[in-house]
Amino acid sequence: LVSREARDEPTVVRVKEAIFGGDHLAIIAGPCAVESLEQVMKAAKYIKAAGGQVLRGGAYKPRTSPYAFQGMEEKGLEILKQAGNEYGLATVTEVIDEPSLELACDYVDMVQIGTRNMQNFRLLKAVGKVRKPVILKRGLSATIEEWLMAAEYIMSEGNDQVILCERGIRTFETYTRNTLDLSAIPVIKDLSHLPIIVDPSHATGSAKLVGSMSKGAIASGVDGLIIEVHPEPCKALCDGPQSLDPQQFTALMEELKRVANAV
Ligand code: PEP
Ligand code: MN
């Protein structure tokens, strides 16, 4: 179902004002984690003003350490919904299991499967049964074939609104948090009709690398970007070093519009 042979036309996923696929560039932005109403409202205000269409925010955080902040759960979903409504942004949040999926569907417009759950096949099947677009992140060490088969799990249950997300893979390089595989963009376009977006924040782990990787992704034909933005990155409970502040995000959006028009 995911392959070009199954469908030649590019799949276009529309979520409120965001269009993933075709000749569009969709921008998702927001904090790694929902921390408070004030934090998300501030982020949403700048994201809307800069031209973003989708607000991200984690309410369930699958952290490497069990002692790290695990997310605000349902309260976080409520905050995300409130900020999305206030600023006219669509919303997306990560789901980590069937209970969080069921709850998230009551609050957000799109759900996200994180890198650590790319091969959680029961979760993929559950997401395949809901009527919400799904962002499927590439597994930390997943091949493109494995990633597409994970998308196949979702589609085989009836949900054809799948957006693939390249977020960097694990290599021997340790300077960056992960290694962004930009070649995944044209390869996916060749193999599949599904839209593909890039997450330059988790790919690099560094706010100063987000701009260049975003531009590289646009030049490579990406359908959208998911960028971490925090009103005060130095105070973030999660992923502060890779988060842009509102001024950096606003300036980057101006540059990205020029790059997108040039390609
Ligand atoms: C995230 O987007 O907040 C996240 C945890 O990303 P990943 O699953 O790519 O690590
Ligand atoms: Mn994060």
List the helices and strands and how they pair.
Elements: E1 13-15, E2 18-20, E3 26-30, H1 37-50, E4 54-56, H2 74-87, E5 90-95, H3 98-105, E6 110-113, H4 121-128, E7 134-137, H5 144-156, E8 162-166, H6 184-191, E9 196-198, H7 200-204, H8 207-219, E10 224-228, H9 246-262
Parallel strand pairs: 3-4, 3-10, 4-5, 5-6, 6-7, 7-8, 8-9, 9-10
Antiparallel strand pairs: 1-2
The structure holds phosphoenolpyruvate and manganese (II) ion.
Describe the structure.
This protein has a single domain, classed as Aldolase class I (TIM Barrel, Alpha-Beta Barrel). Strand 6, helix 4 and strand 7 form a beta-alpha-beta unit. Helix 8 packs parallel to helix 9. It is α/β, with parallel strands linked by helices and about 260 residues long. The mean pLDDT is about 95. The chain starts with 12 loop residues before the first strand and ends with a helix. It has nine helices and ten strands. An eight-stranded parallel β-barrel has the order 3-4-5-6-7-8-9-10, surrounded by six helices. It binds phosphoenolpyruvate and manganese (II) ion.
How would you summarize this macromolecular structure in one to three sentences?
Residues 17-261 form the DAHP synthetase I/KDSA domain. This protein has 263 residues and is an alpha/beta fold.
The major β-sheet equals: 8 strands, parallel, barrel
Total strand segments: 10
Per CATH, the class reads Alpha Beta
CATH fold-level name: TIM Barrel
Q: List unreliable stretches of 5+ residues.
A: none
Proportion of residues in helical segments: 25-40%
Helix and strand content put the structural class at alpha/beta
Radius of gyration: 17 Å
Distance between the termini: 29 Å
Instruction: Provide the number of structural domains.
Output: 1
Order of helices and strands: EEEHEHEHEHEHEHEHHEH
Rounded average pLDDT = 97
- Second-tier CATH architecture: Alpha-Beta Barrel
What binds here, in terms of ligands, is: phosphoenolpyruvate, manganese (II) ion
Shape label:
globular
Organism: Heliorestis acidaminivorans
EC number: 2.5.1.54
GO molecular function: 3-deoxy-7-phosphoheptulonate synthase activity; aldehyde-lyase activity
Protein name: 3-deoxy-7-phosphoheptulonate synthase
